[in-house]
Specification:
InterPro entries: CBASS_pafABC_assoc_protein, HTH_11, WH-like_DNA-bd_sf, WH_DNA-bd_sf, WYL_dom
Structural class: alpha+beta
Radius of gyration: 22 Å
Distance between the termini: 48 Å
Order of helices and strands: HHHEEHHHHEEEEEH
Organism: Xanthobacter oligotrophicus
Domain Helix-turn-helix type: 6-59
Strand order of the largest sheet: 6-5-4-3-7
Domain WYL: 140-203
Pfam families: HTH_11, WYL
Length: 233
């Protein structure tokens, strides 16, 4: 294993732990001596990784730092290029612009050889069906999800029946032909999915919903598993 690969593995290992991990445990998982581990941690810190801790206490990686160029493998470069191209083609305008901007920022800090790999990636997004336009700016829906605030929706179902809903939005799903807002519906007292092209109006309410977004997402996934299990039986 090269030193660059070892540093990458160490950073990836630290990323998976939210609490301080002892140097001994890290060294064992990476397969190096404790002395080499200390040198690798110092090297990562010098490159901008926010690793806090000290020998005998443990180490933890703090979020929010710029990834050093060596932290991307060729496969990750291809994944970034492909994912950004998909978002640029199939997501809404703001996300598409953000994807292109993020890719340009990443390219700016990559070494020349990796930057060429990113810019000349041969993984392409094929044409897909047109996605129906949205009457409501998807940025408003994403803001509601991020801030865990309720939304008041004017929504029409498949039969074009219009209803007023107050929902707790916690996810936005992107399909080839539609985008779907997923949330807890106060009117139905259950999880519901709302096609964004059928949302006629949306108002971001001041009230935060009473459960955390991740808890709602977890409960929704469990509910989906039960439905699939029942269908399989």
């Amino acid at each position: 294993m090269s030193r660059s690969e070892r540093l990458f593995d160490l950073l990836d290992l630290l990323r998976r732990h939210r609490h301080p991990v002892s140097g001994k445990v890290l060294a064992q998982e990476i397969g190096v001596s404790i002395r080499t581990l200390y040198r690798d941690i110092a090297s990562l810190q010098a490159q901008g990784a926010h690793i806090e801790g000290e020998p005998g206490v443990g180490y933890v990686l703090k979020p929010g730092f710029l990834l050093p160029p060596l932290m991307f493998t060729l496969e990750e470069i291809e994944a970034l290029a492909l994912g950004s191209r998909w978002v640029a083609e199939r997501a809404d305008g703001r996300l598409g612009t953000a994807a292109r901007s993020a890719l340009a920022r990443i390219a700016a800090v990559l070494p020349a050889d990796l930057r060429e790999e990113l810019e000349t990636s041969a993984l392409l997004i094929g044409p897909g069906p047109m996605i129906p336009g949205d009457a409501v700016d998807p940025a408003l829906l994403r803001k509601a999800i991020r801030t865990e605030r309720k939304l008041r929706l004017a929504y029409s179902d498949a039969s074009a029946t219009l209803s007023q809903r107050v929902v707790w939005p916690f996810a936005l799903a992107f399909f080839d032909q539609v985008r779907v807002l997923i949330g807890w519906c106060e009117l139905r007292g259950d999880f519901r999915s709302f096609r964004t092209d059928r949302i006629h109006d949306a108002e971001l309410l001041d009230a935060r919903y009473p459960r955390r977004r991740q808890a709602l997402l977890k409960a929704w996934r469990h509910a989906q598993c039960r439905v699939h299990d029942a269908a399989g039986n």
